[in-house]
Design a protein that fits this description.
The complex is a heterodimer of chains A (338) and B (469). Chain A is α/β, with parallel strands linked by helices and 338 residues long. Chain A has helices at 4-22, 78-81, 91-99, 113-127, 177-190, 193-205, 231-241, 265-276, 288-294, 313-332; strands at residues 28-31, 36-39, 42-46, 52-56, 72-75, 103-105, 131-136, 154-157, 163-166, 246-250, 280-283, 299-300, 306-311. Chain A has a 5-stranded parallel sheet with strand order 6-5-7-10-11, sandwiched between helices. Chain A has a two-stranded antiparallel ribbon with strand order 1-2. A two-stranded antiparallel ribbon of chain A has the order 3-4. In chain A, β1 (28-31) and β2 form a beta hairpin. Chain B is mainly α. Chain B has a two-stranded antiparallel sheet with strand order 1-2. In chain B, α3 packs parallel to α5 (118-134), α3 (48-67) crosses α6 and α12 (298-316) runs antiparallel to α13. The two termini of chain B are 16 Å apart. The chains are: A alpha/beta (338), B mainly alpha (469).
Chain lengths: 338, 469
């Protein structure tokens, strides 16, 4: 017993260290002014899929502890947040390097088109962006945007059948939000083991082993019928929310190698509607021939899945090239105005 | 109830506690039989009757064989019952589908659920009646003892295939948890658990992706996929065997060794002495030798080898892929025998490399879901195709590193007493390093190991590969 107790303490310290290496993501806190959760300011690394080191500022903006009005706002989900790659490899950083503009990466997992619409009024006032890039994908407009996740904006239909935006409501797990924040703070300083253990077991319960895998191992559900979702209505709300001053980055995930690509009904409908309304679109669905010729996929990592999951470093580079071209055009046309 | 699931841990804890509380002697054996039947019924209670039915048939058959009356008829009854069950449950649809392919008939597909572990327990029970028939074994005097042997839960579902001659003499031992048994059993179980949940399951996702769409990937990726599958199936099945051996040890029984570093083999013949040892020995003693073995000339020996391996392949599953796998292994054994007759042995490093590549290459039909995919993978592996994607699962390199280290330790057997580990070898289960007396470093390693498993292990995530057989 005299040997066992010190050995156990040392083991716990080892596991604590390991937790911090592989699951820095664990903790988030509410940023009341932005009315959303943000990753704790500091450095995190993440090994679930890919392996990246990321630095977050107090406003939940990647690599930015302060910012200037007139920057380009980048709204998106975990694809834009990009925990899977280092700061220097994200498309946001690469576009900044290519254009000399400042980009504010506000990507956060699970954000849908409803969030991008709902947050637009305050964000536009708060950040005063010169332009906004909104990253969306098929799932952002289907039933996911209607799922009543209380911590995100989502859609409902009102009595007249019109789309109604429901505001996020934080049902703090540990009671009040302040207490939630305190518990998270305490975990961060004392031990990440309980928080990480809880998160890992939650992942496992969804059939997602915590290490070295990405996405669910269960077969993906059949794609929803695009006809059943009001895609055009949603996009119209998005266009209005930004007064048309936005570029939509559409991340297509329907690419399969060797000519096996899947039909893209939602993407085709969304992109053609946006273009018909004069909205600028950067669509990775058009990169199939590039991927075929380069024999590389935008998505997936060797420690996770092939051609599935989040953008890999090569994917970020390709997206960055397209966005750099897009922002240069906007700049040349004099459209980048706060 | 998968060995790596929390349900099994609870079940095992209950079994050990009840055994410890019961008085020593027969009552513990009876309790063990009841627990074993419960364990089997937890998979599918309907097939428990089948297990008990076949136990009774073989028990009665062996009883009459030993009395000397109509010995052949009783043996035949036992063999027909066992093989009949196996044929019906495992091969019925395979034969019907192939008959349908001839175009003369159209038999509908039968909705038959394969009883868990049927391939393993039928081989176990057949070994009993055959041994009694040969006079190598006295029949068991008590049906309940025999049921304890047949239903013994640690090895019931996926082996090791315990011969009656190995297990029945142990039935007279006092059983139940003791400090030394628990230390050894838990150490062995922990090794198996790590192999399964950390290594095999970690490799599964990469393997699954490569074998699902082999046409996406280039030659190097396919080689990585095949290597990853070679490691996955080794860690999965040897991990299961370790868990079975460890569980049996905690109870007080010894199960036979099933793997002995097979990827270090220097020939196909040696590979089969090290891989799934209990099946190889079963096939040797109850099929190859009765067919004539190597006593009737070279051609007959080769034919016997081919037949044994073909049936060994078919034992794994009702599909032409398994038949091909068995046939090619048989061919490997024949070629090796011919080579040894004509030429000197190859240099060790070359022999090892050739055997490794041979064994890995033959995992392709074992894992691929069709002969067409098998051919596609082989053609891309050996004739590189430039226009394809690269995908090199990271977990492969970690697992490979662990495998190399474990094999190095296994081959060199260094003194690990400073870590509190000693080499345990009871002459049946094979050597294992086990924690005997904890040093500080040993306690630290053990605690960290367990904490990491508890923390990261995807419990109850995937079944063992050999469960399907």
């Amino acid at each position: 017993m005299r040997k066992l107790i010190p050995a156990l303490i040392l083991s716990l310290l080892t596991v604590e260290l390991l937790s911090r290496m592989v699951d820095g993501r664990g903790l988030s806190t509410l940023q009341p002014q932005l009315n959303r959760r943000v990753l704790y300011p500091g450095t995190v690394s993440f090994m679930n899929e890919g392996w990246g080191i990321s630095t977050w500022g107090p406003d939940g903006i990647r690599q930015k502890s302060s910012w200037k009005p007139g920057s380009v706002l980048v709204m998106g989900d975990s694809y834009t947040e990009a925990l899977q790659v280092d700061d220097s490899l994200t498309y946001n950083h690469l576009v900044e390097q290519g254009t000399g503009l400042e980009l504010l990466n506000l990507g956060y997992p699970g954000q849908t088109i409803a969030d991008h619409i709902g947050r637009a009024p305050f964000y536009r006032k708060y950040f005063q962006p010169s332009w906004t890039i909104v990253q969306i994908a098929d799932t952002d407009m289907d039933d996911y945007a209607f799922t009543a996740n209380p911590e995100t904006y989502h859609f409902e239909r009102d009595e007249q059948g019109r789309l109604k935006l429901i505001e996020p409501h934080y049902t703090a797990k540990f009671g009040s939000l302040e207490r939630d924040r305190q518990v998270a703070e305490l975990s961060r300083w004392v031990s990440l083991i309980p928080a990480t253990y809880y998160r890992f077991k939650a992942l496992q319960s969804r059939g997602e082993p915590p290490l070295f895998f990405a996405g669910s191992v269960k077969p993906p559900p059949p794609a929803p019928d695009p006809a059943s979702f009001p895609i055009e209505e949603e996009l119209e709300l998005l266009i209005k929310a930004y007064d048309g001053r936005l570029t939509v980055l559409y991340l297509s995930t329907r690419y399969r190698p060797m000519g096996h690509s899947l039909p893209r009904p939602i993407e085709d409908r969304a992109v053609s509607y946006l273009r018909s309304r004069g909205v600028r679109v950067v669509n990775t669905g058009e990169m199939g021939p590039l991927m075929d010729s380069e024999l590389r996929s935008l998505y997936g990592f060797d420690n996770a899945r092939f051609n599935a999951g989040h953008l890999n470093a090569w994917g970020h580079r390709q997206v960055a090239e397209k966005l750099t071209r897009e922002l240069r055009e906007l700049e040349n046309d004099g459209l980048l105005q706060p | 109830m998968v060995f790596s699931s929390p349900r099994f841990f609870v079940f095992l804890a209950v079994v050990l506690t009840v055994l410890a509380l019961l008085p020593r002697g027969t009552v513990r054996k009876r309790a063990l039989a009841v627990f074993s039947c419960f364990f089997y019924a937890a998979w599918d209670w309907r097939y428990l009757g089948l297990l008990l039915f076949i136990s009774v048939i073989d028990y009665v058959a062996a009883h009459f064989i030993s009395r000397g009356r109509h010995r052949k008829a009783w043996l035949l009854l036992s063999l027909v019952s066992n093989l009949g069950l196996l044929a019906y449950f495992k091969y019925c649809n395979f034969f019907l589908d192939n008959l349908n392919l001839l175009g003369m008939w159209h038999f509908p597909h039968q909705d038959i659920l394969l009883p868990a572990g049927i391939s393993f327990y039928t081989f176990k029970t057949m070994s009993y009646t055959i041994d009694v028939y040969r006079g190598d074994l006295e029949p068991v005097g008590n049906l309940l003892d025999y049921v304890t042997f047949v239903s013994f839960f640690p090895e019931l579902i996926a082996g090791p295939i315990v011969r009656a001659s190995v297990f029945l003499p142990q039935l007279n031992r006092p059983i139940g948890p003791e400090k030394s048994r628990l230390a050894v059993g838990l150490s062995i179980f922990l090794q198996g658990f790590t192999k399964k949940v950390f290594l095999a399951d970690g490799l599964a996702l990469g393997v699954d992706q490569i074998f699902a769409n082999p046409d996406y990937f280039n030659s190097a990726s396919l080689w990585c996929g095949v290597l990853a599958y070679g490691l996955q199936i080794y860690f999965d099945f040897s991990g299961y065997s370790d868990m079975a051996i460890g569980t049996a040890r905690m109870i007080g029984y010894d199960l036979p060794e099933n793997f002995n570093m097979p990827y270090l083999s220097l020939s196909p013949t040696e590979f089969w002495r090290r891989w799934h040892i209990t099946l190889s020995q079963w096939l040797r003693d109850y099929l190859y030798i009765p067919l004539g073995g190597n006593r009737q000339g070279r051609v007959r020996t080769d034919v016997n080898l081919m037949l044994t391996m073909l049936l060994g392949g078919l034992w794994h599953g009702a599909s032409w892929n398994f038949v091909l796998w068995g046939a090619l292994h048989g061919l490997g054994l024949v070629v090796h025998k011919l080579w040894m007759g004509w030429r000197r042995p190859l240099p060790k490093i070359l022999a090892w490399l050739l055997t490794l590549v041979f064994a890995l290459t033959l995992w392709v039909p074992f894992r691929a879901d069709s002969l067409a995919k098998t051919w596609l993978i082989w053609s891309r592996m050996f004739f590189p195709h430039g226009q394809a994607f690269g995908y090199y699962p990271t977990w492969l390199w970690f697992s490979l590193g662990v495998a190399v280290l474990a094999h190095w330790v296994g081959a060199r057997t260094p003194d690990l007493s400073r870590l509190g580990m000693v080499l345990y070898n009871n002459g049946i289960s094979g050597p294992y390093y086990v924690f005997e007396r904890l040093t500080f470093v040993g306690a630290y390693l053990l605690c960290t190991w367990v904490l990491i498993l508890v923390y990261f292990a995807p419990l109850n995530f995937s079944p063992f590969i050999y469960f399907q057989f």
